[in-house]
Amino acid sequence: MSPPIDFSLRRRTLLAGTAAAAAFSAVNRGGAAAQSSAAPAGPETSTVTLTVNGEPRELTVDNRTTLLDALREHLKLTGTKKGCDHGQCGACTCTVNGERINSCLSLAVMHDGDEVETIEGIGQPENLDPMQAAFVEHDGFQCGYCTPGQIQSARKVIEEIRAGIPSHVTGDLTAEIAITDAEIRERMSGNICRCGAYANILAAITQVAEESV
Q1: Higher model confidence: residue 112 or residue 3?
Q2: Distances in Å between the alpha carbon of 198 and those of 58, 69, 157?
């Protein structure tokens, strides 16, 4: 027969064990609650109707799909580029209802019924938009990755200046603003060119601005 085990339960040991058991139980309950709350509260997909480059398009997307991914992955319009995916580089610039936006920051489901224009909708190799032609003439690109967003922004910049809309929302919105190098640079500051072709981009925009007077 085995000798008796000398065992004594101390108060401190009992309290520590009880606390550990309670903590473990709370963690398990919290994990179950987290799993329950993670379940979708409604439909996970939506059907969206867009007018893209003048053509009605209907697509069903996950509610978390950005407009950029809807254009690239669902509609195969890959001219709009994914750069930083955080709204910092401007490579994904397109226009929605005539206003330029960073499409990586906007959900597709937010644009049901909207009119979207991408780089594919403003010109073709045999019939270039004036801004596209100016970028080619002035070598306004090197790798070309940011170029679609640059061109989309550049076209709207001239319209904004012509309309007298300040680059900062202050002052008289109807005031006439001169198209200066500084004004163009300020308005184009959200479009980053990692190759550093800024001087040529500025020359291209200036040429189109002068020709459109």
Answers
A1: 112
A2: 37, 27, 15
Instruction: Give the helix/strand (H/E) hosting 203.
Output: helix 198-211
State if pTM tops 0.85.
no
C-alpha triplet 36, 39, 45: angle, nearest 5°: 175
- What stretch of H or E contains 1? none
d(CA 81, CA 64): 18
Q: Give the domain ranges of the chain.
A: 45-121, 130-211
| pLDDT tens figures, 130-145 | 999 999 999 999 999 9
Q: Please state which CATH number belongs to domain 45-121.
A: 3.10.20.30
Q: What whole-number distance in Å separates Cα of residue 109 and Cα of residue 67?
A: 8
